[in-house]
Amino acid sequence: MVIFEKGAPLQDYLTVAKTGIMRLSKNKRDLEFILQNGSRFEESGPRNSRNTQFIQMGFATYKKVFDLNSFQMSKTGDSAFYDPKMLSIRQLNVTIDSLNNQDSLFVKKTNTEFAPYLTFVRYADTGWAKSNGLPSGNPQPFDELIPDSIKQTVYSNAIGAIHNLRGNSIVMEQEYKDRLESLNLHKIEWHRKLTLSFACLVLFMIGAPLGSIIRKGGLGMPLVFAIIFFVVFYLLNNFGEKLVRSNELSPLNGMWLSTFLLIPIGLFLTYKAMTDSQLFNNEYYYRQFKRARLFLATFKSDKNHP
């Protein structure tokens, strides 16, 4: 039996025995190793140094006990596996409502974080406000109003306040962006649960008329057109989702973009199928082209021979 002990302060320990028994203790809390006829190897001293001591101890019987608590798995919280995709529409509604109500919390937090550094707002000059910011007389520069003895202190305090305001604004901006990103993700999943279901009807509205209109080519030609429309739907869906994540479009417009663009095509194909259209009939276009060519030839001959 060979036992490697990792995590020692200096070097790893090694225990080797010819025979041994592994069992649980009576209290079921420890793991015991009863080893027979072996040796224990230890190395003490600074790691990666030549000034170390190598120790070898032989034994006839050696008992090693491990605490089983160190082998127990700690339960990870549910927040570590949180994903908006796993929530139902009802749960998404609750979460979205909670995220929307955080705007008032940001306002309160902003007042708390910025108010200590903007104390001059409490002493705003009412006369300046009434004059619409237009000074009267000959106003003095700000630095001339400060005595020389405290000018350096005032400047240092102002610079420190500006740095603190800048740091707090950066933190608040990042928190707001994170909250907005989380809100968009939840809205995306809310709309996705509806758009994917509705997309089945839209693609059916496109695929069924295609099978009716395309009369030649058997199953292959309608299948090719159906795959093309599915790829178009997939690309538009991903494109709309990316626009929502980048705040270029609202979740409603972005997630329903593919549906809005494909529904008119589906209605058009359904109408053509109901009116027995020859939309994909090559012979129909050939006859129309032949008629147009004959018309142009007749028109040119009439023009040359008035």
Task: Explain briefly what this protein structure is.
The protein is of the alpha+beta class and 306 residues long. It is built from nine helices and four strands.
Structure, described:
With 306 residues, the chain is of the alpha+beta class. The chain folds into 3 domains: 2-69, no CATH class; 82-188; 190-298, no CATH class. Helices cover 56% and strands 15% of the residues. The chain contains 9 helices and 4 strands; from the N terminus they run E-E-E-E-H-H-H-H-H-H-H-H-H. Strands 1-2-3-4 form a 4-stranded antiparallel sheet, with no helix packed on it. A hairpin with an 8-residue loop joins strand 3 and strand 4. The protein is flat, with a radius of gyration of 40 Å. The termini are far apart.
